[in-house]
Amino acid sequence: MAEKAVVPVGVRLTTDIEYRPDRLNPYRARVRWFDPATKRRLSLSEGKADEDEAQEWLQSIIEAAEAGLSPSLATMKLAEYGNANMDLALRGLELKTHDPYLSGWRMRVVPALGHLAVRMITNGAVDRTVQNWIADELSRSTVKNTIAVLVRVMEQAVRDGIIKVNPARVTGWQKLYKQAEDELLDPRALALPDWETLVTLADALVAASHDEYRGWGEVVIFAACTAARIGEISGCRVGDIDTTQWIWTVRRQTTPAPGGLTDKGTKGKRARKVPIVEEIRPLVAQRILSAGPNPDARLFTGPRGGRISTAVLRDATHWDDVVTKLGYEHLRRHDLRHTALTWFAAAGVQVHVLRRIADHGSLTTTQRYLHPDVHKITAAGAALSAHFTALRAPRSLPSPIVMTR
């Protein structure tokens, strides 16, 4: 155990790092101090993965104390701070604006960023979070209201002296939203071209991951053959798979929540059935065998058995670097869903069936996957011309009537 005393302005801090080898995060960083008002001895501690990370945490506490902040305020999580100061953050707003702002706070800001300390939230973290909201197909007004309430809470943190600059004042998100809208008008353009390309992508992602974990490639192949979201794949349990008819009943999804990931209902708030095609049945059978007899066991997990998300998959496989090297620099995890729906449509699946597989709220969204090929468009034009020709052709005159006596 290493210990040293630090004397910032007005507060005496004592910090130490204790190594506990039996813990998941074995380096416990602890800070202790006397509260000037109550004269009580207080302490805070957090477990870290390595000693450098523990030292960084302690250094952030020291810097905050030197700026006049108590350690408890310096380490306060965004969810706690926002809930405690929401009235101040929303002052001056019309009452009718409160509901959409508070909804954005509860349903999007807290699950995505609430577990982070206010001082640890960066412009980059906010920017990536906003991009995820856009990729999740949230409406423009929903994204706008959600950003607005985050900006107000972080502005209050600036006034309180917790941070110097508001990191939530992101710019250019409207342009990203327009780009996402344009892409969704032609989702077929986002799909991988064929099975061989999919396998190549999966193998490359596995090769780039730590210890070359095969599970990442299996998640990618499963997603591109079921049209499921990554969160839904993470929420899949062994008992959800019918290996007699090879049907997957999609019942839940894994989403960000305060403190980590949690399971909840699907985006459409209803269960749906998705076929498991023959090409991935051996993969699914092996996953079921590995998961064991418990029907509640997850079909897909990370290398340590944890829940996965699109961000976890991206980081673990170095996704951005891999897809760029393969020539698909714009490919996102959600485009695996576009791939599956495009392939289903190309195979002739009827639109009402495709809509149920995709869990689309609007039939118009599903129809975007049904764009006919160029040769079919040409044939349609020729057929219409032939129809017009038939309409313009002169009709044959009736035979003259011969009068006989």
Give a brief rundown of this model.
With 405 residues, the chain is of the alpha+beta class. It has 17 helices and nine strands. Strands 1-2-3-4 form a four-stranded antiparallel sheet, with helices on one face. Strands 5-6-9 form a three-stranded antiparallel sheet, with no helix packed on it. The protein has a two-stranded antiparallel sheet with strand order 7-8.
Which key features would you list for this structure?
405 residues; three-stranded antiparallel β-sheet; 17 helices; disordered N terminus; alpha+beta; globular
Describe the protein's topology.
Layout: E1 2-6, E2 13-19, E3 27-34, E4 41-48, H1 51-66, H2 71-74, H3 78-89, H4 95-113, H5 123-135, H6 140-159, H7 173-185, H8 195-208, H9 214-226, H10 230-234, E5 241-242, E6 247-250, E7 252-257, E8 260-265, E9 272-275, H11 281-291, H12 310-317, H13 319-325, H14 335-346, H15 351-358, H16 363-367, H17 374-392
Antiparallel strand pairs: 1-2, 2-3, 3-4, 5-6, 6-9, 7-8
Helix pairs in contact: 3-6, 4-6, 5-7, 8-9, 9-14, 14-15
